[in-house]
Amino acid sequence: MIIRTVLRVCLLSSSLVLASKQCDAADDEGLPSRVKLGSQDAGVNDKSDIKIYVDRPTSYKNDLVLIKLRKRLNRTQLSENVSIANLCHPSDLLGHPQFFAAGYSYNTQKNEGCKKYTMELENLNLNECKNVKMTRQIEDLATDQSHLCLRPIPTFEIKNECSKCLTATSSVLHVQRRDGSQCVAGIATPTNDECIEDESPLYFTNILTKSVSDFFNGE
């Protein structure tokens, strides 16, 4: 099942959004015209959701895109509906950090998004991701701390129509610090657009590297 519409994004400022390359398109017809922020359920149009028109995305190594909002978010919107991401410090990745992915679940039968979810992940050696299915070639994949390899930690849950598709819905990677607070460290690498429903390893793009930081701070 290929998913092209329901993606998690990282709000960097009141006017900039960092997202997966899946938010881009090869032609003007497929480009995103708006982003929806603050949604708890991708399949529901809530009055509190914020929809804003955007400019053409700027691409980074066929991996990430930076999207500029045509209208800045105001203080009310930032306090009530959405919040600017609290980015981690590189030191937050040292030792044995606790990782969580946040994304939208997906109904593969109806091809539509569902509610937001979080899932704990296990940090692995990069070699564990060598068999990840690749339908999109990512530049500089897994070089110089550019990516992390993680695997969902299995948990018992009641089966329903919606699946937790980490890569296909561009889940955002969070680190839980010792004090209980969380920060953002990455975005699921768009190696493929499929909903993989098992505990297979997957790549997350580390957005704390100097290269990525220079990319979004240069805008």
UniProtKB/TrEMBL annotation:
> Which InterPro entries does its entry note?
Peptidase_S1_PA, Peptidase_S1_PA_chymotrypsin
Gene responsible for this protein: LOC117569060
Q: Upper taxonomic classification of the species?
A: Eukaryota, Metazoa, Ecdysozoa, Arthropoda, Hexapoda
List the signal peptide residues: 1-25
* Protein's name according to its UniProt entry: Uncharacterized protein LOC117569060 isoform X8
Q: Can you tell which superkingdom this protein's organism belongs to?
A: Eukaryota
Q: Give the source species.
A: Drosophila albomicans (Fruit fly)
Q: Which UniProt keywords apply?
A: Signal
